[in-house]
Specification:
Blueprint lengths: L3 E7 L3 H12 L5 E4 L15 E2 L6 H21 L10 E5 L2 H15 L5 E4 L1 H7 L10 E5 L3 E2 L2 H14 L3 E3 L4 E6 L5 E5 L2 E10 L5 H6 L8 E10 L3 H10 L5 E4 L4 E6 L2 E6 L6 E2 L21 H10 L2 H4 L2 E11 L6 E4 L6 E5 L4 H18 L20 H13 L23 H6 L2 E6 L2 E7 L17 H14 L2 E4 L3 E7 L3 H8 L10 E7 L5 E11 L2 E7 L3 H10 L6 E4 L5 E6 L3 H6 L16 E6 L2 E6 L8 E6 L4 H12 L5 E2 L2 H10 L33 H10 L3 E8 L14 E4 L2 E12 L4 E9 L8 E6 L2 E7 L10 H4 L1
Parallel strand pairs: 1-2, 1-11, 2-8, 4-13, 11-19, 22-32
Antiparallel strand pairs: 3-7, 4-6, 5-6, 9-10, 10-11, 12-15, 12-16, 12-17, 13-14, 14-15, 18-19, 20-21, 22-28, 23-26, 23-27, 24-25, 25-26, 28-31, 29-30, 30-31, 33-36, 33-38, 34-35, 34-37, 35-36, 37-38
Helix pairs in contact: 1-5, 1-10, 2-5, 2-10, 13-18
The structure holds flavin-adenine dinucleotide.
Length: about 800
């Protein structure tokens, strides 16, 4: 074993092997993989090897597509048989909602170049004669699905990496990890030490334990998972003989099961409701290529459906039942990337579908390590999407929810209940008493809307307009015509202090820093000119700033700021040590003025002012801005004051007709003002030029990414963020939810990033990226909403108050 290497990858499952392979592909060949037993000894060896490209997140779907496309290549190059069966796959729908979901999935796949067909139940039956047609209304067929041999694939990755110079040490256990002051690592194993510049935790079933070696509690949990293999079946042999083809794989949502051909038999796996975590506190190091005791009673409800949907199965004997553990993160997506706050430490774990995702995970992690950028949109997989709040018990609750919902639809307006409420702000009980319907983001509860008195605070889940629609419309009217009050603590908040803060931030930000007492909007870019984040910057002293950004990006952004920190500068994540309430609407000034001595007249407190003032008896920082695009104020206080502040503003607002509004209304209001949002319009794959962040882009100073911005401005951006007015189907209106394809001239040319019904303007609006040459005001497009292509006109400016008079009034 080498005593030093550029990278040590810990774990020789399919994911570690893929990371190793991709590092060598990118030219990092001084790399070592350390495996405690033999390759595949974790969850990899007993996997069913199924692979499919379909995923609720189109960017993850793209990486799954990449993974599937890789197998032939690594098979050829390594000479290792991967057992590739491209049998195609059916996703079967038993009802209208599921059919809608499949149509939306097909539509999303279009802009990724995925060719999937919607077929009838009869066509599905013709492809898969074992099924009973009466239980299905249709299906999605994807040719690019199938199954592989898990061991063959892992060895093929390893073989290619070895050919390129990588070293693989099996039967070598990493028992400890120690970081040196220069950020490099001593990897302690039972066969000696390796000094490494970088470490990658691809520990699979033991990723949590490997994390603990450096004091990290990764949100990963293993679940037991069962599949069974039948005796050979006559129906299978008949189909093979008659068609010359293998049966396709099938996913059956009602049965919560997947089924595929295995030799002359069928393999059937379930994601049962009565799911069971495995080793929830500590994975034993002694576990080695073992299986768990099967429990057929647990999967009996799924088997009952299976015997109804595929009657021949009931006649077939069971040859084998496999029960094995594999890992999940709370939302079911992998954890990939640099660990926030720990130098040269990377993770590639919680990969629950290693044979669909392993290649994409390896590719993006290797690019991130070698080029400093994953090269694809991996927001849904970034380890930084969870903060320290994702504790062991939270992970346990969420993973069980996720596992048992694997084949359930999660509607775009659905808020899943497990692990909640976790973080609440002090006004939580007050808002609950006023019938708030709650949502959660980054562990924090925030009000979505306020149900009418006497009615149950519950939202119907749907792809169309829900029972919230008329109530949110009223909330929007309150804001636009009187004054609305809402919780705004669900921003990420940071404080930057210390000599040199201004110079440091100026080098990072695309806009000039505001003067003391002012706020402005800015972006931060990577050297390639991609958006790392977008922030409101409030300056309270020469070297003293508050930054406000998207809450879900808190760990992502703070990882980046801390990774670039300058000497003498202090960067603090404020979290819930600073909470807020926001007043918005034409009456906002009158309400606030009635409880403060500070003059709020526009000449004294103009738009984009940020100052420390007293509100009643409460010390507050008050910014004159709101995301509603109306006259408004964000009032920031220490948490112990938030309830008093709420009571004060509520009382003071009564003469002005104050009403509460929630996040749904905010999203509607921001759409009619054409305000983009993080993780939708602004993501690390876009640039500020494409996203039309021109107001935040000042080329009069030097900042990271400036050269790339100038180059893009000179050649013109390839794509541009458009703002669309959509005509929904009048018979059954539905608005965009995001990721819908945008059509032009009979072809898919772009995709929707987000949208909403703008209640006050009575228009269905969307943002989306299209090729720049098509982004002409007035141009007509079509946006595909639940299988229907609806007309969409590209608008040149906000539908409400384009000159911004309301905000500045
Ligand atoms: C029953 C079952 C069926 C499945 N079917 C499918 C399927 O059809 N399709 C699909 O895509 N996925 C399937 N999966 C999931 C799939 O198995 C996993 O996604 C995949 O194996 C994850 O691979 P990994 O490399 O992350 O983890 P693992 O396979 O667990 O590998 C981690 C490796 O790290 C090693 N290691 C850990 N700690 C150390 C240490 N300290 N020192 C040295 N080595 C260490 C372990 O020994 C292990 O070999 C199934 C899983 C199960 C249980």
């Amino acid at each position: 074993m080498k005593s030093s290497a550029q990278v040590v990858v810990i774990g020789g499952g399919v994911v570690g092997a893929s990371v190793l392979y991709h590092l060598t592909e990118l030219g990092w060949t001084d790399v070592v993989l350390v495996e405690r037993k033999e390759l595949t000894a974790g969850s990899t060896w007993h996997a069913a090897g199924g692979m499919h490209a379909l995923n609720g997140d189109p960017n993850v779907a793209k990486l799954q597509q990449y993974t599937i496309g890789l197998y032939r290549e690594i098979e050829e190059r390594s000479g290792q048989n991967c057992g590739i069966h491209m049998s195609g796959g059916l996703t079967l729908a038993g009802d209208r909602e599921r059919m809608d979901w499949l149509r939306m999935a097909q539509a999303r796949g279009r802009y990724l170049g995925m060719e999937m067909e919607i077929i009838s139940a009869a066509e599905a039956k013709a492809m898969f004669p074992l099924l009973e047609e009466q239980y299905f209304v249709g299906a999605l067929f994807d040719r690019a699905e199938g199954h592989v041999d898990p061991t063959g694939v892992t060895r093929a990755y390893a073989g290619c990496a070895r050919q390129a110079g990588a070293e693989i040490c099996q039967h070598t256990w990493v028992s400890d990890l120690r970081q040196r002051p220069d950020g490099t690592w001593d990897v302690i194993t039972d066969a000696g030490e390796i000094h490494a510049e970088h470490i990658v935790n691809a520990g699979g079933l033991w990723a949590r334990e490997v994390g603990r070696m450096i004091g990290l509690e990764l949100p990963v949990l293993a679940m037991e998972h069962m599949y069974l293999i039948t005796e050979d079946m006559a129906g299978v042999a008949e189909h093979n003989a008659a068609t010359g083809r293998e049966l396709p794989m099938a996913m059956d949502f009602d049965g919560e099961l997947y089924i595929r051909q295995e030799g002359g038999a069928m393999l059937l796996g379930t994601y049962e409701q009565a799911c069971v975590p495995w080793s929830p506190h500590q994975t034993p190091w002694t576990f080695d290529k073992q299986l768990l005791t099967p429990d057929l009673d647990r999967i009996a409800p799924s088997l009952e459906v299976a015997f109804k949907h595929y009657p021949a199965l009931a006649e077939a004997g069971i040859k084998n039942v496999i029960n094995g553990p594999f890992t999940f993160a709370p939302d079911g997506n992998p954890l990939v990337g640099p660990v926030p706050g720990v130098r040269n430490c990377w993770v590639a774990c919680a990969v629950m579908a290693g044979f669909s995702q392993g290649g994409g995970v390896g590719l993006t992690l290797a690019r991130w390590m070698v080029h400093g950028d994953p090269g694809e949109d991996i927001w849904a997989m970034d380890v930084a999407r969870f903060g320290n709040w994702a504790s062991l018990a939270y992970t346990n609750a969420k993973v069980r929810e996720n596992y048992s919902r694997r084949f359930r639809i999660t509607f775009p307006n659905e808020e899943l209940p497990a692990g909640r409420p976790l973080h609440t702000t002090p006004v939580y009980d007050r808002l609950t008493a006023r019938n708030a319907v709650w949502g959660a983001g980054y562990g924090l509860e925030h009000p979505l809307w306020f149900q009418r008195p006497g009615e149950e605070p519950r939202e119907d889940v749907t792809f169309r307009r829900s029972n919230a629609f008329p109530v949110v419309a009223d909330e929007c009217t309150t804001v636009r015509e009187r004054v609305g009050l809402t919780e705004c603590s669900n921003f990420a908040k940071y404080r930057v202090t210390g000599a040199g803060s201004a110079a440091w931030l100026q080098r990072l930000f695309t806009n000039r820093l505001p003067r003391v007492g002012r706020i402005n909007l800015t972006a931060a870019l990577d050297p390639g000119g991609h958006i790392v984040g977008e922030f409101s910057v409030a300056r309270v002293g020469t070297d003293d700033f508050f930054l406000f950004g998207s809450q879900i990006a808190e760990a992502h952004h703070s990882r980046w700021f801390l990774g670039h920190l300058a000497d003498g500068v202090r960067f603090d994540v404020l979290g819930l040590s600073l909470v807020g309430l926001s007043l918005a609407g034409p009456g906002a000034r009158d309400v606030l003025q009635s409880v403060t001595d500070a003059s709020l007249a526009t000449e004294d407190y103009p738009f984009m002012t940020f100052r420390r003032i007293d509100v009643g008896m409460i010390p507050a920082h008050v910014g004159r801005m709101t995301y509603t695009g109306d006259l408004g104020y964000e009032i920031w206080v220490a948490p112990e004051y938030q309830r008093a502040l709420f009571d004060l503003l509520w009382q003071a607002g009564q003469p002005y007709g104050v009403g509460l509004f929630g996040f749904r209304a905010l999203m509607s209001l921001r759409m009619e003002k054409m305000f983009g949002t993080w993780a939708r319009e602004y993501r690390p794959i876009y640039t500020p030029v494409q996203a039309r962040m021109h107001r935040s882009l000042k080329l009069d100073h030097d900042f990271t990414g400036r050269a790339a911005v100038e180059a893009e401005l000179a050649r013109g951006p390839a794509r541009t963020l458009g703002y669309f007015d959509i005509s929904p189907d009048p018979a059954e209106p539905a608005d965009v939810v995001g990721d819908e394809p945008i059509w032009h001239g009979g072809a898919v040319v772009g995709w929707v990033t987000s949208g909403a019904y703008a209640h006050y303007s009575r228009r269905s609006l969307a943002f989306g990226y299209v090729p720049s040459e098509l982004a002409v005001p007035g141009a007509m497009f079509e946006v595909e909403i639940i299988g229907q292509r609806r007309p969409a006109r590209l608008l040149p400016e906000p539908v409400l108050d384009p000159a911004g008079h309301r905000m500045r009034a």
